[in-house]
Write a structure and sequence with these properties.
The chain is α+β, with helices and mostly antiparallel strands and about 190 residues long. It has 3 helices and 9 strands. Bound molecules: heme C (HEC) (2 copies). One heme C binds next to strand 4, strand 7, strand 8, helix 3 and strand 9.
Length: about 190
Amino acid sequence: MRTPTSAPRSVALFAALSALATIAAGAQGCGPASATCVTTGTPVAPPADPLGATAQCTTGKTWACLNTGANFMNPGQPCVACHTTRPGAPRWTVGGTVYASAHEPDNCLGGPATGSDPVTIVATDSTMTERTATMVPGGNFFFDTTARPPFTNIRVRYQGRERQMFSPATTGDCNSCHTSAGMNGAPGRIVLP
Ligand code: HEC
Ligand code: HEC
């Protein structure tokens, strides 16, 4: 699974890769994160209607290294659930992944397919302090370990555009609701503005 394979061409293959990673979840990481932690396939054009789009892995790239520490690790998975329990994992209180469309599979790397403008994630924490994180390449973001829920005024900013979450979040585990299908009323993934 670490060996880069030829270009995956279908959503079905991405789904199969995600399923394999899920089956293997809980196993040890597979060494230091490196280029071999990513299986590179064919990127797909971002859909015209990102929220209404069917499932696709826009970047064409899939994380392939289980729980090896790297800022682009386990994209799409609930970061905080693991980071509050797993020995050795930093105690992030806010983490998640930004995607080009709403139903991207777990372990698909996110973020803009092109362009280098930073994507920022803003939220006000329990002390009414506004926190800001910058998305890393691969779509993930995380705040420092001192931000406390509930979070309000949650926004994602990119190229002068913005998407806002209107309800407060009782947890900073963004991907626990922003799953591929969407949980607890979320429309699916956190999508680029
Ligand atoms: C199933 C468990 C699990 C999930 C899910 C997970 N992580 Fe991790 N993460 C770990 C472990 C364990 C480490 C430390 C392992 C190591 O250093 O090799 C780690 C390390 C990291 C590090 C490196 C910290 C450092 O400075 O060394 C970052 C950054 C990180 N995770 C971000 C995230 C983000 C963002 C997400 C969600 C998109 C996430 N992780 C999801 C288990 C997880
Ligand atoms: C408890 C579940 C839950 C958690 C946790 C959560 N969200 Fe949401 N999110 C929702 C729901 C439900 C909506 C749609 C209704 C709304 O805007 O309040 C939403 C909407 C959004 C939107 C707007 C989507 C659009 O239509 O443009 C963004 C952006 C967003 N969330 C970002 C985040 C970020 C960033 C985090 C983590 C800090 C987060 N969410 C955590 C449930 C959640």
